[in-house]
Amino acid sequence: NNDVHHNLGPGIWSDGNVRYVTYEGNLLVDNAGPGIFHEISWDATIRDNVARGNARNAAGKSCWWGSQIHVNTSQNVRILDNIVRTDTGANGICLVDANRPQVSPFPADLANIEVRGNSITLSGTANSGLVGQAALNITFDLNTYAVPDGAGRYWAWFDKYPLTWSEFRVRAGESSGTVTAVVSGQQI
What we know:
By secondary structure, this protein is mainly beta. Helices cover 4% and strands 47% of the residues. It has one helix and 20 strands. The protein has one helix at residues 165-172, and strands spanning 3-5, 12-15, 21-24, 27-29, 36-39, 42-47, 50-52, 67-72, 75-80, 83-85, 91-96, 111-116, 119-121, 128-131, 136-141, 144-147, 153-157, 160-164, 178-183, 186-187. The model has no long low-confidence stretch (mean pLDDT 93).
């Protein structure tokens, strides 16, 4: 239940073997880095947060560079029921498998990540999804996406990006997710 805003870096950042953390009920607005950044860590639940206008430094760049909710080389993470808005053109929810060397006790791969029930509005060239090459057991489902163009490319999956909605659904298994085109905040 924190209000985290206007930082020159991430809003909330856990880095390096952080375990059993819950990020819940936070408002994360206008931070230069990701709103929530869970990096090289374990066992997290990220739920019921509002993240908007963060990751300005990553606007127009791929998921590798940052997003509203950003998980990098971590394991056993659930990202549930968040409201994500990318009014700056920065990315929505991104998972990164950075292929880091195994250094005990830190995870070396992205694994066991569930992204479900989130409301994600993407603007400009923003993306959501997964980048990297070796992630295991990653699931996206029941997310709703609002995008500028229903035929546009706003998603990433491993080394394939940007992807269309149908390409992302096939790769990510987003079988019950939905996408709606919006123009200036109005559904079309």
